[in-house]
Write a structure and sequence with these properties.
CATH class of the domain at 3-90 and 183-274: Alpha Beta
Order of helices and strands: EHEHEEHHHHEHEHEHEH
Structural class: alpha/beta
Helix content: 40-55%
CATH architecture of the domain at 3-90 and 183-274: Alpha-Beta Barrel
CATH superfamily of the domain at 3-90 and 183-274: Metal-dependent hydrolases
CATH topology of the domain at 3-90 and 183-274: TIM Barrel
Radius of gyration: 18 Å
Number of helices: 10
Strand content: 15-25%
Shape: globular
Number of strands: 8
Distance between the termini: 28 Å
């Protein structure tokens, strides 16, 4: 029962609907998937229903942006309670931050003499968790950029003229938020940060797992993080980070997390809830 535990839909910055994503997972033979949209669980009920109809196990999740000692990190929450009010309130706050960030990005683009309407970005996003890819799509639609890569290189990447830093909660607080919602916290794509030194602090704060299998991890990096997970007694997660067609091709299917890792995650959740 292979799984992909890092997936996005159009409820954040992906292009697939939950139903389309579930259909792709079914076609590829996945036995389990998790929806981890940025700062929202809005797509989880629809994804859960679509997966149930296709015989796929669904794990409710979300991807939270946070920081530890100035280092930006993304934490993946798994087995989250979709009805948890504290989590819902926090996600609503993060969504408001995202909206304000988009407005500031557009203001910076306009200040460069480039005409782009913030409302068009929100219309394209059509979700409560808009992000920079939606601005990129608006730039492409307006003929200002030829593609998303150009949009990020000219305007949206860190250090570029329209870059706006995003509010980030403290990593230990994010871990606590995930735990109080009954979930497990996993550090997303650690190979992208070049910050292995933060892992012991995150473990001390209660982090449960490490995303060892990831599309942009080489075989050597995967082995490195598997060893670190073993060293720190962390569980192992993995996923493609599929955003639909935002990156030119669908990434779902690129990572197939073996079933024994899923069983260990489920066992940890069951033990914690029984305690």
């Amino acid at each position: 029962m292979a799984a992909d535990l890092h997936l996005h839909t159009n409820f954040s910055d992906g292009t697939y609907t939950p139903e389309e994503l579930a259909a792709h997972a079914h076609r590829l033979g996945f036995g389990a998937v998790s929806l981890t949209d940025h700062d929202t669980m809005g797509g989880c009920p629809r994804m859960a229903a679509a997966c149930a109809g296709l015989g796929i196990e669904f794990i409710a999740g979300s991807e939270l942006t946070c920081e530890h000692e100035g280092q930006e990190l993304h934490l993946l929450g798994y087995f989250l309670d979709m009805g948890n009010q504290k989590l819902a309130d926090a996600l609503e706050k993060f969504q408001g931050v995202r909206v304000n960030r988009i407005r500031e990005i557009i203001a910076r683009i306009n200040a460069l003499g480039v005409k782009l309407d913030a409302q068009r970005v929100f219309d394209l996003a059509n979700c409560r968790s808009p992000g920079r890819p939606h601005v990129g799509r608006a730039l492409v639609e307006a003929g200002i950029c030829s593609g998303l890569d150009e949009a990020f290189e000219r305007f949206l990447k860190k250090g570029k003229p329209a870059w706006v830093p995003k509010y980030r909660m403290i990593a230990s607080e994010a871990i606590g938020l995930i735990h109080q919602s009954g979930g497990l916290a996993s550090l997303a794509h650690p190979g992208l940060y070049r910050a292995d030194h933060v892992i012991p602090d995150l473990v001390a704060a209660g982090m449960d797992a490490l995303e060892c299998f990831y599309t942009r991890h080489s075989t050597a990096l995967t082995e490195h993080y598997l060893m670190l997970a073993d060293e720190h007694r962390l569980l192992v997660t993995g996923g493609s980070d599929c955003h639909g067609m935002n990156k030119g091709r669908p990434l779902i299917g690129a990572i197939r997390l073996p079933s024994h890792f899923i069983e260990k995650l489920k066992a940890r959740v069951a033990a914690r809830r029984a305690a």
